[in-house]
Structures are given as C-alpha cells and as structure tokens.
Amino acid sequence: MLNEREIESCYLGQFIPVHYHHNMLMDNNRMHSFKSAIDYIVKPGMKVLELGGGTGVLSFFAAAKAAHVYCVEFNPDMVKEARKFMAINPNGDKVEVIHADAFEYLPPEPVDVVICEMIHVAMLREKQVEVIESFKRRYQQKFGGPLPIFIPEAVLMAVQPLQQEYDFEGFYAPIVQFQETGVVHTQSVELAQPAVYGVIDFTQPNALSFAWSGKFVIERDGTLNAMRFVTKNILAVVPERSSTIDWLNHYMNLPLAQPVKVRQGDVVQVSFAYRAGGSLPSLEAALQATVLFEAVPEVAVPAPVAPIGALA
C-alpha cells in the first residue's frame, strides 16, 4: 500500500516516467546551463549531494571534479536506470545512487554542494522548495553550519497578462499551455510588461506559500484571458564576471475563468495564491483579474472651420 506522501507524489508528478526523462536530456538549454553551473561551483575534491537525481546526469556532471557524489532518487525504476547509466559513463564510479526519500535522507558526512532540480514553473507540482527547506533544518541539526552551496542558488518568478488563442481547428478549449522561451508565439499577445511576484533565495529560510496582488497598465486593446508565469532559475552567481548562470523554464500560460475586455491605458488588478509544490488547478482556481480603472477614451475634436470669407 502506498502511503499518503507516495500517493501525492504520484499525482503531482514525482514519479516521472522513465521515457519522459529523454525530453529533459534533449533540452539543450537545461543541460548546458546546469553543466556550466556545476562546472563553475564544484571544485576538485568536493563532496556533492543531488536530491531527486532522475537519470543521474547532473550527478555525472558533478563527478567530473567531485571526490564523491550522493545521488538520491525516490523512484525505484529511475534508481535502476541511473545505476545502469553510471556504470557506462566516465567517473560513474564516484556516483553513489541511493534509493531514498529526499524528505528524509541525509548524507553520512557533510557535503559542499547540494543540487536539487525538482523544478516546475512557478515552483508548482514538484517539491523543490519544501525538500530544500526540510533538508536545511535536518542538515544543521546533524552537522551544524555552514550550509552547502545550493544549485540553483535562487529563483525569480514573474507573471504577465496575455490575450491567448484557444481555438484549435474550431474547437474552443481554454487550457494550460507551455511555451518555449526565446521564440515568437503569434497565438499569445502580451498585454502588459511582466511583474516579479516572488524571489526565492535558498541561503535564507523560505515560505512554502505565495500570495500576490498587483496592478498592470494595459498597453494595447484586447481580451485578457490568460496569465503567463515566468520562472528564472539562477543556477550560479559568478561575482568575478558580475553575472549569473541562468535557466529559464518554459512559459506557463494559465487561462482565466472569466476573460476581461481591456483597452490601452486600463489598470488591471491581478491576484492569486498557492502553495509551493501544489497542483496547477489550485493556482488556476485562485487566479483573478479585475479592471480597476478604465482608460478615458479620446474624444475627437472637430477641426476649426475657417470663415466663409477666408475661403474666397
């Protein structure tokens, strides 16, 4: 029998099927950004822990320099796959794949770096925030300080009003959509600039709930019927270059239950609340948009009429 956490994990996507990991391995932005961040942060001889290792690819990146890598995975199918992959890759002997629950596991020794890529847009579905906060408490109780370096180091979350096309060959279906970044999406019209609603710094304690209410000034006429959620993961801070190594999740466009007609200059208030690791429907149900101030339409002023005598 599955316990309550295992049931929730299956429902929220913790047991990602083996074949789905191919999509993550094929995501060049994800792979390159994590490889670059791990190569920058992990120094020769370090001890590394990965929470939620999946195929073990991030542990493999770390093993290029680390003395030892603890790769923790809850899904028994993925544990078998990761062990198989480590056996056929260089430095795989330095990666110890452990079948354990990331909410409970602690390494047998202090580690220098913790990698946790349980990342979904807006920190939904997967349990990254809760796992890391639990880990920090338990780690300090066992080993004291300082805490390891975390990858990602921080997360920025933003939201943006959209007019989204929901016509599929004549079939109208307002449904959540995920979009690649850096690509022009003609079916999505941006109605205002995005606003940051949340910042997570893993070196500090973080709340597990997000509640936000903010205003947008609409930039063009249209129908506000969706909100785009943007999640930027700061994988590593590079102070000597005054830069960061980032990974931008796919955009997530959530439909509004009640579309709103808007005009340029209108002020719209948007609000929502949800729990980190919660379901998409929980955020969708809380999402609301209201026009606070309507733009005053411009009134055409007739051009002055010249006196008849002046026309002669």
Counting DSSP H or I runs of 4 or more residues, the number of helices is 8
The CATH homology group name of the largest domain: Hnrnp arginine n-methyltransferase1
CATH architecture of the largest domain: Distorted Sandwich
Q: Which spans have pLDDT < 50 for at least 5 consecutive residues? A: 4-13, 308-312
The radius of gyration over CA amounts to 24 Å
Strand-residue proportion:
35-45%
**Termini, distance in Å?**
98 Å
Instruction: Tell me the domain tally.
Output: 2
Name of the level-1 CATH class of the largest domain:
Mainly Beta
GO biological process, one term: methylation
GO molecular function: histone methyltransferase activity; protein-arginine N-methyltransferase activity
Pfam families: Methyltransf_25 (PF13649)
Domain Methyltransferase: 48-137
Overview of the molecule:
The chain is α+β, with helices and mostly antiparallel strands. It folds into 2 domains: 4-117, 3-Layer(aba) Sandwich (Rossmann fold), CATH 3.40.50.150; 154-293, Distorted Sandwich (Hnrnp arginine n-methyltransferase1), CATH 2.70.160.11. Helices cover 24% and strands 35% of the residues. The protein contains 8 helices and 17 strands. The strands form 4 sheets. Strands 6, 9, 10, 11, 13, 14 and 15 form a 7-stranded antiparallel β-sheet that branches. Helix 5 links the parallel strand 2 (68-73) and strand 3. The longest helix has 16 residues, at 128-143. It is elongated. Mean pLDDT is 91; it is low at 4-13 and 308-312. It comes from Pseudoduganella buxea. One of its GO terms (biological process) is methylation. GO terms for molecular function: histone methyltransferase activity; protein-arginine N-methyltransferase activity.
